[in-house]
Design a protein that fits this description.
CATH topology of the domain at 5-179: Rossmann fold
Strand order of the largest sheet: 2-1-11-10-12-13-14-15-16
Strand content: 25-35%
Shape: globular
Low-confidence stretches: none
Structural class: alpha/beta
CATH architecture of the domain at 5-179: 3-Layer(aba) Sandwich
Distance between the termini: 56 Å
């Protein structure tokens, strides 16, 4: 029985041995090879003075070294702090100081900035992938160093494994604390619900620090799936690797699928090995989902999760109903409910819109060093506020309406950006639409859409507004349309609605 994350590679090596586990930019690793590398690097971390319960910040783009580092930190009983590479140096400084990190593992392009940060923080050790600058330890040298295999500490399942910081769209990011138990259970439940196993080959460009990417890594170790990891998302490279590796699964976010569909290379893409695709991170218009399924010729299965629950909270079972527009039903051993936004104790009837709440063994231990925010998010009885607005049908399937913080209040009416985006996505000339808010003297706030048109497509602002009026109530329709070439996105490809106003500058 696996009790903590650090045990996974050794168990996988015994179970799957010389099966291919990971492929990254021409490098292939078996489960046994990965386990040996993790044993070696964990020993080096130990001899550098990293102790049990010390926090280690992992700040680098996708690479095989990232995955080795992740499991190595856990193997010595230290706490993993995976950090989004899009964070600025100032934001990284806040994170490192907030969680009192003792070490930073980073890439050579970020190492110089981290050397300066080291002087202003609790960090004692800095390790760099690639060429290590003066003041940093070399990952390559450490992983090749001959050292005795250290004995893993007796880490309990309930102990702290990970501090994953939220995006920080409103103020400083908060560090969600996850136990080993929560991470392991989420990885196991996801793989079993999706029926992922040794015969599956997964292509992913999701950033490694992202909580769902962590789920894919733990699933790889527990169930023997092969992971084809990409440094960044590039439609052509994704197409190539699906064909070369005969991938059975592609995991992505809505914008990835939209860019793949609109890519000129799509018509020549060999996707026949795919059996299913998964999408999450943001709501996806039903019309677009159907277009993906028709083009890819496989089911597209939606899921939902967040950092505070160590991965997924809901999804569709592989052989159950696949209700487009829904994030599915609760994961095993978990509960979902819809409550009154103003009164969480009031559970709403089926079909009514309220805040989605989740409860189960996957919920976080709290926010690191912030009891006030913890109390705001976690109820005493274990229910966690998601911040998402949604409704539930009679079968227990949940439909996300929008983020609570993204809601637009127009003349007293609630307007949900995602609802407008879904309508605009149905327009034949629209490739992608993102909706933000703009202050208005009379209405308080109005909806403004930022639209990317399909290649060589033409339409007008008024045409799109009129198109929305055919489907939406007048108060829900965007008052303004701005045509753009791109929209601000997170490292996962999620649209950053609160950054859209910068396109007006």
């Amino acid at each position: 029985m696996i009790e903590h994350i650090g045990q996974m590679p050794g168990v996988a090596a015994k179970k799957f041995k010389d099966r291919e586990a990971l492929f990254f930019e021409g490098k292939s690793f078996t489960f046994e090879e990965l386990s040996n590398l993790i044993e070696s690097f964990s020993s080096s971390l130990h001899y550098l003075g990293i102790k049990e319960k010390d926090v280690v910040t992992l700040y680098a783009s996708n690479c095989w070294e990232w995955i080795v580092s992740y499991f190595s930190i856990a193997r010595i009983g230290a706490v993993i702090n995976p950090v989004n590479t899009m964070l600025t140096t100032a934001e990284i400084k806040h994170v490192v100081n907030d969680c009192n990190a003792k070490a930073i593992i980073t890439s050579s392009d970020k190492a110089s900035a981290m050397i300066n940060l080291k002087k202003e923080s609790s960090v004692n050790v800095l390790i760099s992938f690639g060429i290590a600058p003066l003041g940093a330890e070399s990952f390559n040298e450490l992983i090749g160093a001959k050292s005795d295999t250290i004995k893993m500490p007796n880490t309990l399942p309930e102990s702290l494994s990970t501090i994953g910081y939220t995006s920080g769209t409103t103020g400083h990011p908060k560090g969600a604390m996850q136990s080993h138990k929560a991470v392991i259970i989420n990885g196991a439940m996801t793989s079993q619900f999706h029926m992922r196993g040794p015969d599956d080959i997964v292509v992913s460009a999701l950033p490694c620090p992202h909580v769902y990417a962590n789920v894919l890594m733990t699933g790889m170790m527990m169930f023997g799936t092969k992971l084809v990891l990409h440094r960044t998302f590039d439609p052509l490279k994704v197409f190539e690797d699906i064909a070369i590796h005969k991938a059975t699964i592609f995991d992505g976010v809505p914008t990835m699928f939209m860019f793949m569909l609109s890519s000129p290379e799509f018509k020549n893409a060999e996707l026949s090995s795919l059996k299913r695709c998964y999408v999450g991170g943001q709501t996806m218009p039903v019309a677009t989902m159907k277009a993906v399924e028709e083009a890819f010729k496989v089911p597209l299965i939606e899921l939902w999760g967040m950092t505070e629950i160590a991965g997924l909270g809901s999804t569709h079972p592989l052989y159950g109903p696949n209700k487009h527009g829904s994030i599915g039903c609760a994961m095993p051993y978990c509960e979902l409910k819809i409550v009154n936004v103003e009164n969480a104790s009031e559970r709403l009837p089926m079909g009514q819109v309220g805040e989605l709440m989740v409860k189960g063994p996957i919920t976080m231990m709290g926010y690191f060093g912030d009891q006030d925010k913890t109390n705001e998010t976690l109820e005493p009885d274990g229910w966690l506020h998601s911040g998402d607005l949604g409704k539930m049908d009679d079968d227990g399937y949940v439909y996300i309406v929008d983020r609570k913080k993204d809601m637009i209040l127009t003349a007293g009416y609630n307007v949900y950006p995602a609802e407008i985006e879904r309508v605009l996505a149905n327009h034949p000339q629209v490739a992608l639409a993102a909706v933000g808010k703009e202050s208005d003297e009379f209405k308080g706030e109005i909806a403004k859409a930022y639209v990317i048109l399909k290649d060589q497509a033409k339409t007008s602002e008024q045409d799109l507004i009129d198109f929305c009026h055919k489907t939406l109530a007048a108060y829900k329709c965007p008052r303004k349309i701005k045509f753009v070439n791109d929209v601000p996105k997170t490292s996962t490809g999620k649209i950053m609605r609160r950054e859209l106003h910068k396109l007006d500058d």
